[in-house]
Design a protein that fits this description.
This protein is of the alpha/beta class. It is 45% helix and 17% strand. It contains 15 helices and 13 strands. β11, α11 and β12 form a beta-alpha-beta unit.
């Protein structure tokens, strides 16, 4: 089977396990398509079911076959279902065997196994979701922080779709004005005032720019802000990593060079999803394995959004600071580790954040400093405003903006006839329509749903 080629018309019935396989209390198997009710009639007793009501049923291999399980079944008649098709959901006992047996019976009686993301794809094709909302389904499943969860929920609810459609309306209005001017040049009211066309063009361009400005924030919300803990060996990096996580993930010893690779974990801090990274100590070494760890550290430093540069007054701090400055332009937060050992002769500069993991001192202050730096350099996470979260969104908006500027240039400079200038508007509208899927975009759909899990 090649991608969705065999099922793009939605005339067959698909089935899949929608929960992860393995030992669990419940497993959910989903069936969608024109034969869902017929298959349910063969396998489930009682049948028919009351629509949208969970009913306790016997699940058998066929009408008079062996009992596989007693399960809860719910039937959704088209179009009032997730996919817009007749849909049957069977909640069996969990484990490996029972769900596999039930799925096998479904496939035996006319269903075929769904491809990754095929249920959501059908929801798009049947008008239950647009492409932006479908992407939000994937983001919601993958969300590991409150910020990404909130953003995905808002997008699934249609906040970004509504903004994109509002932008499309601006462009369609502009196209209509130009079309009227082309088709009815001799009307009594005269040609459309150029100021009106200019104002509508400016409004549309501003709306595009407003969305494009959210791209860096959207990327950080989706991928997480990379906060790298860096410094020399044995200055307390791994201890700080564990303390910020609240559990021991990194091995902590007094032996320099213990961390040979980077450890990464996601934490949710003041609305920011943060990918916290513990790295190997940065120093010159002849140990081949440790040097590999140092190279990994340098790669993380180069991609960091914020760097926590740790120091316990060990010699060589300045050389590490200089090394990091050559690798990255990310903001650096100076962290004075082991602050419980600081004496009056060895006071910490006010620009540093003092922490001690043993009495857990200074950790909240450090987290506050991290989020302040992120806010200053990347903007405050947007709570309610639409945010573009994918490169696809950005590319489509940039294409629309480029076409709109080409139209504006041609219109104001009278360098092209109006019908030719209007072609740029049509291309801008096409780029916007691709975002929500109001035109045929099979390649966009195929690329999107390959990343989904089977059963969704």
């Amino acid at each position: 089977m090649n991608g969705f080629a065999e099922s793009s018309d939605g005339t067959d019935t698909i089935a899949a396990l929608s929960t992860p396989p393995g030992r669990s209390g419940v497993a959910v198997i989903r069936v969608s398509g024109p034969q869902a009710a017929n298959i349910g009639n063969v396998l489930l007793t009682p049948w028919p079911l009351l629509e949208r009501v969970a009913t306790l049923c016997d699940v058998r291999t066929d009408t008079n076959g062996a009992l596989l399980d007693r399960a809860l079944a719910t039937f959704f008649q088209a179009p009032a279902s997730f996919t817009g098709e007749d849909t049957l959901e069977i909640s069996t006992h969990g484990g490996y065997l029972i769900p596999a047996l039930v799925l096998a019976a479904l496939l035996k009686h006319g269903a075929r196994e769904a491809m990754p993301g095929e249920f959501t794809r059908r929801a798009v094709m049947n008008g239950r979701l647009d492409i932006l909302q479908a992407e939000a389904v994937g983001d919601l499943i993958d969300a590991s922080t409150h910020a990404m969860h909130h953003t995905a929920i808002a997008q699934l609810d249609g906040s970004l779709s509504r903004e994109i459609l509002r932008l499309r309306d601006y462009l369609v209005e502009l196209e209509a004005l130009i079309g009227y001017d082309i088709d009815f040049p001799e009307e009594d009211d005269g040609p459309i005032p150029r100021d009106r066309i200019l104002a509508t063009t400016t409004t549309a361009a501003d709306a595009i720019d407003t969305l494009l400005k959210t791209a860096p924030m959207g990327e950080l919300l989706r991928e997480g802000a990379i906060v790298v803990i860096a410094g020399q060996p044995n200055v307390g990096k791994s201890s700080l990593f564990n303390a910020l996580l609240g559990k021991a993930r990194a091995i902590v010893t007094d032996v320099p060079g213990t961390t040979r690779d980077a450890l990464e974990a996601v934490i949710d801090v003041r609305g920011w999803p943060i990918r916290l990274v513990d790295t190997a100590g940065m120093r010159t070494t002849t140990d081949v394995v440790e040097q590999l760890g140092v190279e990994v550290s340098e790669r993380y430093v180069a991609s960091a959004h914020v760097i926590l540069l740790c120091n316990d007054d060990s010699p060589g701090y300045e050389s590490v600071e200089h090394r990091i400055a050559k690798l990255s332009r990310a903001p650096i937060v100076q962290v004075r580790t082991k602050s419980d050992l600081v004496t009056k002769r060895d006071e910490t500069p006010s620009s540093h954040v003092s922490v001690s993991v043993i009495p857990r001192a200074g950790l909240d202050t450090l987290l506050d400093r991290i989020t302040t730096v992120l806010d200053e350099h990347y903007g405050t996470p947007l709570v309610d405003a639409p945010v573009i979260t994918r490169a696809r969104h950005r590319q489509a908006l940039l294409r629309a903006r480029s076409e709109l500027l080409l139209f504006d240039e041609a219109w104001q400079g009278n360098t092209l006839p109006a019908p030719v200038a209007a072609v740029h508007l049509r291309d801008a509208i096409g780029a916007i329509e691709e975002l929500v899927g109001t035109i045929d975009v099979e390649d966009v759909l195929d690329k999107l749903f390959r990343s989904f899990c089977v059963g969704k």
